[in-house]
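Figure 6 in text form: structure in, sequence out.
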């Protein structure tokens, strides 16, 4: 079909649909980690008064290591389904994967909301919550991979809109938390309203996905038969950020695992053009070219997930009890992280420094290890081993801003540099390898959080 025959996106409905789908896919992760104080309050005991969404709890609830477990059980499914992607894509139809995942996520989040009204002892409540976290994130991994497979047939603008929705999921969750806290209703009603919010978002995602086949533009692109590896192709973050509408708003740590989409038609800037070689590129050969960049990606997320949110969610305000003390963690930990992370990722649309030949990148990545002791030495009450060297709120806010910006920028930078280090026909393999190492970094960081929590 000629270019002029391509249908128009009437009222931008297709773009809005993919934006909402992007928002819905990452709401579960963000709503769970932002509500850590609520869960810790429930785990403190059935008669606990610590149920306010914004309160910080470092008492009996810490025996469950909730912060650490919710992070680990959110990231392990991502690593697992990264390895199982090719099997799932071949055996299960795309529509079944998407709609089935959305429906299961909706039901499990409805269960989480219903449990707000159910009195349970800490042990069973912890077990049910952890099971929900595991299954919700497992289906989220399948859902996101499937949607990116569909986006592979669409213009890059729609990939950018999808990523924009994902990028706003963390900010949306933090704002929902603040609105629930400021509503003035009792703690139980506030928590119920908070957990109903992602249910509405996921239901809206289902509606948007069901409407796509009835939109002419979506039918035109999605009806195309993809190439055999289409479902696993991921476009590089650099190309998404350079889209005309500049909608490539980035995501919080988990989201980055799904930003890598390869464009086989795009030539790397620093490699001479040569004919595509027959046969499948060697994984070992590709790995030898990108191993340092992949290692940097692993280390970036290992550092980030080792302290966020397991350690950072424990930091409290050093000021006297009051409104600021209550709102301190939702604002300075979750909202500030997501905003600055978005800012850091957006910077790669303007410059890429250092380049792939520079040894500064490994140095900058290694310097982020300093954030681990810095956060551990902030104002965390009831510590038993380490002293508090940075009690003032300004220290934590400063650390968080640099921590989040550096996370966003270095993640986006490594994803942009990896495809430039290989030949055109090797970029698909490079993308698969980077996706795997990204998931590995997330899982390693979540595992290390247990150690750092024990050292406090």
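Output sequence:
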């Amino acid at each position: 079909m000629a270019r002029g025959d391509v249908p128009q996106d009437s009222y931008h409905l297709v773009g809005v649909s993919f934006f909402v789908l992007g928002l819905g896919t990452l709401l579960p992760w963000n709503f769970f980690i932002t509500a850590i104080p609520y869960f810790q309050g429930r785990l403190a005991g059935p008669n606990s008064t610590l149920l306010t969404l914004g309160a910080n709890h470092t008492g009996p609830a810490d025996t469950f290591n909730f912060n650490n477990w919710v992070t680990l059980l959110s990231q392990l499914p991502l690593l697992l389904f990264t390895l199982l992607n090719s099997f799932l894509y071949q055996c299960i139809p795309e529509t079944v994967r998407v709609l089935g995942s959305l429906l299961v996520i909706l039901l499990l989040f409805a269960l989480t909301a219903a449990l707000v009204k159910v009195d349970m002892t800490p042990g069973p409540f912890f077990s049910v919550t952890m099971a929900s976290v595991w299954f919700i994130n497992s289906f989220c991994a399948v859902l996101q991979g499937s949607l990116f497979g569909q986006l592979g047939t669409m213009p890059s603008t729609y990939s950018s809109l999808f990523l924009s929705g994902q990028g706003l999921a963390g900010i949306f969750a933090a704002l929902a938390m603040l609105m629930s806290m400021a509503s003035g209703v009792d703690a139980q009603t506030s928590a119920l309203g908070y957990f109903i919010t992602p249910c509405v978002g996921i239901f809206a995602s289902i509606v948007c996905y069901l409407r796509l086949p009835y939109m002419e533009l979506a039918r035109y692109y999605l009806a195309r038969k993809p190439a055999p590896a289409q479902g696993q192709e991921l476009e590089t973050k650099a190309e998404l950020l350079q889209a005309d509408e500049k909608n490539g708003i980035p995501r919080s740590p988990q989201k980055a695992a799904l930003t890598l989409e390869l464009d086989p038609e795009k030539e790397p800037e620093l490699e001479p053009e040569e004919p595509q070689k027959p046969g499948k590129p060697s994984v070992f050969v590709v790995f030898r070219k990108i191993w340092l960049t992949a290692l940097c990606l692993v280390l970036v997320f290992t550092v980030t997930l080792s302290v966020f949110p397991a350690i950072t969610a424990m930091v409290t305000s050093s000021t006297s009890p009051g409104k600021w003390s209550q709102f301190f963690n939702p604002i300075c930990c979750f909202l500030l992280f997501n905003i600055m992370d978005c800012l850091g990722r957006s910077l790669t649309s303007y410059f890429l420094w250092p380049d792939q030949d520079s040894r500064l990148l490994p140095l900058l990545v290694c310097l982020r290890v300093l954030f681990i002791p810095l956060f551990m030495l902030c104002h965390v009450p009831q510590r038993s081993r380490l002293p508090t060297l940075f009690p003032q709120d300004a220290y934590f806010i400063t650390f968080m801003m640099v921590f989040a910006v550096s996370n966003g920028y270095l993640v986006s930078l490594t994803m942009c540099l990896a495809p430039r280090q290989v030949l055109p026909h090797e970029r698909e393999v490079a993308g698969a390898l980077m996706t795997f190492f990204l998931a590995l970094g997330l899982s390693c960081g979540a595992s290390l959080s247990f150690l750092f929590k024990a050292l406090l």
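Caption detail: Residues 57-61, 225-250, 260-271 have pLDDT under 50 and may be disordered.
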